[in-house]
């Protein structure tokens, strides 16, 4: 009798707790003043995105400035004209960059975001600085390997950190914004590099050496800023107060039930690596980075073949506009695959026009479409994979696999876009289109499987997806 009475007394309390839990899962923001939510998210945006974008821009500059240094005297001084020395020095960077992505994200959870980012940035800054003092081709290759080692843990950490702060359908705009910051900052790279070459002869160093020395020092300084200002994970960051922290974690918990980090183990890593969707996302990211690397490396000879020595600023502008537009509409509609497929088709049309038309203006329009189609796929695929995984451990490993495959895209682009095929690069164009068709196929398969699983959940035929109650895949 007393047990029955005790049970009835506790029942109202239990019902209230269940009701509060349901309300939080349905509308987490409803428990907070909308102005407070908006102000906090804006503060997080300003703390995360500018410095992350700047660091990523520096990473892109430091990994690709070899071409500028080559024309500034490095080829003669280090005898890179012998055999395939320059190609090997360019490509050797991608080997550690690809292999160390997963270990990098494992280290991220152990070290914490700020310390991990600082080690990465200062480490590759030191490698960059060292390249300014090498006296032979072998030493240059060693520095390029070290550059790949330290950059390997950087980009996946960046993406992982950003995705832990926002709900699933707020992610792509943020990824696009930090990507756009990197594009704008990186656009000044050739101008700055040229200015550095004017220091040729100062203190006995050639112009190419000054490129590496100055950029290395700048990178190391940014590494110190990363320690001072970069954001950690929501549960440990100091720049938010406890009320703001609770709001962020409540929103994440309601959205995908992984506000509390789980322990990363060898068994979990192996399970994610055996998941075909992990590699599906990775192959799609490779397909997305491939045209970006190809155009980035070979746009100059293509433009010169048309009689243009400029107009890259126009292409950069469309890259920025397209990236943000597709990010905005993807978050707005809460759909990823259809908009990624749309960009793939735009890219394919652009490649065909560039490769097979004769009028220079038409070929330039083809490049315009390639840039418009390829640009937004990088943040788009990253958001797509982040939206369709739960738990910190799976997010860390899947993100690492995805970005590692982007390194394969870089190797692929530099291999199939051959100097002997200038100025139309037909084999490279077909290889790039093959990547786009592969991505379209994977998007179709993923959409079919995800939609079927969502329907089974709604019909009550499965208890949960991704071992997470209430979770549904983003199509």
Q: Going by CATH, what is the homologous superfamily of the largest domain?
A: MFS general substrate transporter like domains
Taken in chain order, the helices and strands follow as HHHHHHHHHHHHHHHHHHHHH
Per the principal axes of the C-alpha atoms, what is the gross shape?
Answer: globular
Which blocks of ≥5 consecutive residues have pLDDT under 50?
A: 1-26
User: Could you name the CATH topology of the largest domain?
Assistant: Growth Hormone, Chain: A
Would you tell me the structural class of the helices and strands?
mainly alpha
Provide mean pLDDT, rounded: 85
Ends distance: 53 Å
What labels describe this entry?
disordered N terminus; Growth Hormone, Chain: A; 475 residues; mainly alpha
Describe the structure.
- With 475 residues, this protein is mainly α.
- The protein folds into two domains: 35-248, MFS general substrate transporter like domains (Growth Hormone, Chain: A), CATH 1.20.1250; 262-475, MFS general substrate transporter like domains (Growth Hormone, Chain: A), CATH 1.20.1250.20.
- It has 21 helices and no strands.
- It has helices at 2-26, 34-64, 66-77, 85-91, 94-99, 101-111, 113-131, 137-152, 155-163, 171-186, 189-197, 207-229, 242-256, 266-273, 276-305, 312-333, 337-356, 360-375, 377-387, 392-416, 426-458.
- Residues 1-26 have low confidence and may be disordered.
Task: Describe the protein's topology.
Layout: H1 2-26, H2 34-64, H3 66-77, H4 85-91, H5 94-99, H6 101-111, H7 113-131, H8 137-152, H9 155-163, H10 171-186, H11 189-197, H12 207-229, H13 242-256, H14 266-273, H15 276-305, H16 312-333, H17 337-356, H18 360-375, H19 377-387, H20 392-416, H21 426-458
Helix pairs in contact: 2-10, 2-12, 3-12, 4-8, 6-7, 6-20, 7-8, 7-12, 9-20, 10-16, 10-19, 11-12, 14-20, 15-18, 15-19, 15-20, 15-21, 16-18, 17-18, 17-19, 17-21
């Amino acid at each position: 009798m007393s047990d029955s009475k005790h049970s009835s007394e506790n029942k109202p309390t239990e019902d209230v707790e269940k009701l509060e839990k349901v309300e939080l899962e349905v509308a987490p923001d409803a428990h907070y003043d909308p102005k407070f939510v908006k102000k906090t998210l804006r503060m997080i945006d300003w703390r995360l995105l500018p410095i992350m974008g700047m660091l990523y821009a520096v990473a892109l500059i430091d990994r690709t400035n070899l071409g500028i240094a080559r024309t500034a005297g490095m080829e003669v001084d280090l005898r890179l004209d012998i055999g395939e020395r320059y190609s090997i020095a360019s490509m050797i960077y991608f080997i550690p960059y690809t292999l160390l992505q997963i270990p990098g994200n494992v280290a991220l959870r152990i070290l914490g975001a700020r310390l991990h980012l600082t080690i990465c940035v200062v480490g590759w800054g030191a490698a960059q600085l060292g390249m300014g003092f090498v006296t032979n081709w072998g030493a240059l290759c060693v520095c390029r390997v070290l550059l790949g080692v330290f950059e390997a843990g950087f980009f996946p950490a960046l993406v992982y950190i950003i995705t832990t702060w926002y709900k699933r359908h707020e992610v792509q705009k943020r990824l696009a914004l930090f990507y756009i910051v990197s594009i704008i900052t990186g656009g000044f790279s050739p101008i700055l590099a040229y200015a550095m070459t004017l220091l040729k002869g100062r203190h006995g160093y050639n112009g190419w050496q000054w490129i590496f020395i100055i950029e290395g020092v700048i990178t190391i300084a940014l590494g110190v800023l990363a320690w001072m200002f970069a954001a950690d994970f929501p549960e440990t960051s100091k720049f938010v107060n406890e009320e703001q922290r609770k709001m962020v974690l409540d929103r994440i918990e309601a959205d995908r039930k992984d506000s509390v980090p789980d322990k990363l183990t060898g068994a979990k890593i192996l399970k994610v690596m055996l998941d075909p969707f992990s590699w599906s996302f990775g192959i799609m990211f490779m397909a997305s980075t491939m045209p970006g690397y190809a155009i980035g490396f070979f746009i100059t000879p293509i433009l010169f073949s048309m009689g243009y020595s400029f107009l890259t600023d126009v292409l950069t502008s469309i890259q920025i506009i397209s990236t943000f537009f597709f990010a905005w509409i993807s978050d707005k509609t809460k759909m990823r695959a259809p908009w990624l497929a749309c960009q793939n088709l735009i890219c394919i049309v652009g490649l065909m026009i560039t490769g097979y038309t004769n009028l220079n203006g038409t070929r330039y329009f083809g490049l315009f479409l390639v840039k418009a189609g390829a640009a937004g796929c990088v943040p788009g695929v990253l958001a797509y994979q982040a939206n369709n995984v739960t738990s910190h451990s799976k997010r860390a490993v899947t993100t690492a696999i995805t970005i590692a495959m982007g390194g394969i895209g870089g190797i692929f682009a530099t291999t199939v876009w051959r100097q002997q095929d200038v100025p139309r690069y037909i084999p490279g164009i077909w290889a790039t289109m093959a990547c786009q068709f592969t991505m379209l196929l994977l998007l179709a398969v993923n959409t079919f499987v995800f939609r079927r699983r969502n329907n089974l959940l709604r019909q009550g035929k499965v208890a949960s997806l991704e071992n997470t109650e209430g979770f549904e895949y983003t199509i």
